[in-house]
Amino acid sequence: MDGEELTEHETALYDRQIRVWGADAQRRLSKSHILVSGLKGTVVEFCKNIVLAGVGSVTLNDDRLVTEELLSANFLIPLDENVYAGKTLAELCCDSLKDFNPMVRVSVEKGALSNFGVDFFDKFDVVVVSCCSLSTKKSVNEKCRKLSKRMAFYTVDCRDNCGEIFVDLQNYIYSKKKDDETFQCHLDYPSFVEAIAVPWKSLPRRVSKLYLAMRVMEKYEELEGRVPGETSAADLLNVQKLRKELCEAHSVSESQIPDSILQRLLEGRQEFPPVCAIIGGILGQEVIKAISGKGDPLKNFFFFDAMDGKGIIEDISEQKAQG
Amino acid sequence: MASEQHLSAIKGAKVLMVGAGGIGCELLKTLALSGFKDIHIIDMDTIEVSNLNRQFLFRQSHVGESKAKVARDAVLKFRPDISITPYHANVKDPEFNVDFFKQFNVILNGLDNLDARRHVNRLCLAAGVPLIESGTTGFLGQVTVHVKGRTECYECQTKPAPKTYPVCTISSTPSKFVHCIVWAKDLLFAKLFGDKNQQNDLNVRSSNVSSSSQQTEDVFERQIDEDIEQYGRRLYDHVFGYNIELALSNEETWRHRNRPRPIYVKDIIPTELIHENGDLDKDSIIGDSSVSAMATLGLKNPQDLWSLKENSKLFFEALKLFFLKREKEIGNLIFDKDDQLAVEFVTAAANIRASSFGIPLHSLFEAKGIAGNIVHAVATTNAIIAGLIVIEAIKVLQNNVKDYRMTYCLEHPSKKMLLMPVEPFEPNKSCYVCSETPLTLEINTHHSKLRDLVEKIVKAKLGMNLPLIMHGSVLLYEVGDDLEENEVANYAANLEKVLSELPSPITGGTILTVEDLQQELKCSINIKHREQFDEEKEPDGMILFGWTQALAVEKNYNGASTSQATSLNTEEDEELQFIPTQIGKKRKLSDNFITASSDNSCIPKETKIKRKADEVDCNNGNSDYGREKMEQ
User: Fold this and answer.
1) Residue stretches of chain A with pLDDT short of 50
2) Which of A2, A27, A22 is nearest to A182 (CA)?
3) Is A45 near chain B, with CB under 8 Å?
């Protein structure tokens, strides 16, 4: 990039991955700064991946006190009350992550994500948010878009044995290799607000049912003032009502969002560790691509469901819908 | 998903993981988090620095320790209440027999080589335990499920042999850098530092081979008391100058090719300059394997492209260091990607040769990757694959046969999918491993010895570890610790006998039974006598039919030897893999997989470049290299 060379130690440590993405990508990684908010299992997997990959810094934000439930898919912290009592998730994860790769600076940022101003985000190149409300997703995404530099913004959400990633790379230019030739490519991403505003009617008929179901859940939690994932089977009737309203408003059939999916999303608050590994792995790969500017990034939603084993990309954006 | 039934299946399960490397670390973590309580793990490797970027259970301070043991300790830190039993051992050791395998509900492979994968496959079939197989390379990966009688076994499908190169491309007409690497590593390096008794194609390019062979042999030997500089210059001029001139004399060869340029040392480095480098005697320690020519020359960055002159200096320096610091090893050296000096020598020689042929030069970092067949590896793919393995394992434990899937992890989406599940294939009815289809062997029963049969077929092709050969009820050969002395002597004598002269003669029409008691694999071989074999196309002097190509050597460019099935315990730290080439619902059994190469620390002992049947119109069975026509 700007000619700074990797040290001998970096070359030795990162040997196998430099052979995948090249020394210039490795240099870009080592200068990137990443903010991560909401540290449940999937995000912990993601953090492990990018710390191993050798990013410049990772800033963790999650002031929740640790509970056994929060640790169900967390391999950074022992399931031992004597260890975790009284400490926040971010603090405990920080201590272990540092250990994975001494060359990466890992730190904790306290405070509620929704309270951070636009300037705060300026120090980062990538922002990953999880376990937060619909309005926080929207507002953080909008703040990132107000900055003069281009930010990569991701949300990730896992429930039961499935999960979703949303990506906003704004106006993104990257290089791509094909048959030994390098091409410049360009992609234009909608913001989160723009994406979820795309009328359902205009989406491909076979769009992932999870996409629609997640929008219903998100909206429901927002309306009810729930913490994401704080739902149970008792909510089913009300969620079905909301589904009806939304489907009518969008003029699509309710059968697009089967009860079985809603039930799973309502009840499955416990994360399923294999799905965390899979979604956290895909997210890690995407962030590495976005930082290095190499390879096709996914646009703009990704879904994995262990029930059918498919990992699917959906492009939910206005121009796509019109075209 | 986290139903009671599903949790109880996990809690009651006893699972065996084979491999605690890239996939293994991720897998052990995900199993532990998912609630598995009784996990056994086998890995014979120790931890290396280049593992640390992805094998996240290991730290710098663990370098040199057992992977299985360190992985166990690391996972117990966050899940102290589960049982993890580590074995720092080779899965092919006899203690891991069929009875050992039978105690598990499912076997999970995170291996790095075909040989061990085949071995585990056979034990799983014999023990009747389901196997989940996996592998990654770069951003690609796959998980497959193998249940005896329900799905194909690991060896049901043909796995194409790795890339091989015609001998003439390597020895006379390289057109790509990789050809220069193969030449530098398998011919020049092997000739100078390896076993002198090995056949070597380094000098076969002259049209009057026979007359000059004795003379050229001496070129490679350092004369007694010969000055090392003198020797280096003589060698340099011979391989990069004289040999190129000789090749140029074959006009026919160059009619449609760019003519190479002979390179002589005097044109590159004036005499005095060679003497400039290396005040060796002061600083380095004799016999130190970390000796580096780069270091003494002040070349720092392995990713830099060095000039022809720099490469030439590196060549002399590396050669000198081998003779001054590692003389005892000369004659037994085998190229190893972790041997710095060997990598330097091969890089330098390959680059000088590349200059000669107008091929772009490469950095040491790149040359090392090519020479060592280093598999690209990242943490994310391993994490994803490990997650998919656990999902399949849970289905297997619940016996959800209709839900089993093989899953590909792709770099570029196919039908919008990055993770693509496919229904498993049915067993291949003509698979000699999981069905009982007999094999056919064409062999000259009047010339070939039992030893040839054992080495070239039973071990190399069938991948047997401890074979036993029977003709009717007569035991012809057997290996094991519990044999009587007279039996050992008897079998040793049989090995040297021609097939038709054995106590129970093997002739055309004979049906042999070959068995491995550890793998519990038994096959029948129908013998067909055949007089003649083409030395070029059929170098083994025998042809086996009904055998899938699976074995063909994981790691050599030249596909030189078939793998040494029994004894290569060298370290390999990567996750060799198979990746899909084309994906669609209706695929033929044969075209689904390609074999990616793996780490090259497992070098076949025999490093000559064989003239294989499919690469031969090269020289039509004689040594006229001028008429070759071939493509790679």
Assistant:
1) 1-2, 320-323
2) A22
3) yes
Interface test with B, best of A11, A68, A75 (most B CBs within 10 A): A75
CB contact A22 to B (< 8 Å): no
In chain A, the DSSP E strands lie at 33-37, 57-61, 105-108, 126-130, 152-159, 162-168, 171-178, 181-188, 301-305, 310-314
Active site residue B602: no
Paired strand residues for B521: B516
| End-to-end CA gap in chain A | 37
pLDDT for B58-112, tens place per residue? 999 999 999 999 999 999 999 999 999 999 999 999 899 999 999 999 999 999 8
Q: What is the CA radius of gyration of chain B?
A: 26
Q: Other CB atoms closer than 10 Å to residue B632's CB: what's the count?
A: 12
Q: What's the pLDDT tens digit per position in A54-67? A: 999 999 999 999 98
Alpha-carbon distance A132 to nearest alpha carbon in chain B (angstroms): 23
Give A8-194+271-315's CATH code, choosing from 3.30.70.20, 3.40.50.2000, 3.40.50.300, 3.40.50.720: 3.40.50.720
| Predicted confidence (pLDDT) per residue in B191-229, tens digit | 999 987 777 777 644 444 444 444 555 778 888 788 888
Tokens representing B600 are 């090259």
A128: which strand partners?
A36, A154
Q: What residues of chain B lie within 8 A of the CB of A308, using their CB?
A: 421
The answer to whether the CB atoms of B384 and A278 lie below 8 A apart is yes
Say yes or no: A5 contacts chain B, CB-CB below 8 A: yes
Name the residue among A2, A123, A120, A11 with its Cα closest to residue A58: A123
The residue of chain A nearest to residue B53, with distances taken between CA atoms, is A52
Q: Model ipTM?
A: 0.95
Q: How far is A73 from chain B (nearest CA, A)?
A: 6
Q: What chain B residue is nearest to A103 in terms of C-alpha separation?
A: B53
pLDDT at B568 over 60: no
| Residue in the structure block whose two tokens are 């959906």 | A314
Closest CA to A104 of A20, A29, A24, A12: A29
Nearest to B412 among A18, A296, A312 (CB): A296
Q: Which residues contact B327 (CB under 8 A, 6 or more apart)?
A: none
Tokens of B105: 């509900």
CA A223/CA A219 separation, integer angstroms: 6
CB pairs under 8 A between A and B: 175
Nearest Cα to Cα of residue A6 among B301, B111, B285: B301
Tell me the C-alpha to C-alpha distance, in Å, between residue B545 and each of B154, B196, B231, B343. 19, 34, 49, 39
* Catalytic-labelled residue, pool B25, B124, B168, B409: B168
Determine the distance in angstroms separating the CA of B429 from the nearest CA of chain A, rounded to an integer: 28
Outline which parts of chain A fall under CATH 3.40.50.720.
8-194+271-315
Nearest to A79 among B79, B386, B418 (CB): B79
| Whether the Cβ atoms of residue A179 and residue A314 lie closer than 8 Å to each other | no
Q: Cα(B580)–Cα(B172) distance, rounded to whole angstroms? A: 34
- What domains appear along chain B, each with residue ranges and CATH number? 4-159+376-422 (3.40.50.720), 175-358 (1.10.10.520), 438-545 (3.10.290.20)
Q: Would you tell me which residues 134-173 of chain A have a C-beta closer than 8 angstroms to some C-beta of chain B? A: 160-161
- Two tokens at B488? 């050992």
Work out the minimum CA distance from B382 to partner chain A, whole angstroms. 8
Contact B380 A288 (CB under 8 A): yes
- For A67, the 3-state DSSP assignment is coil
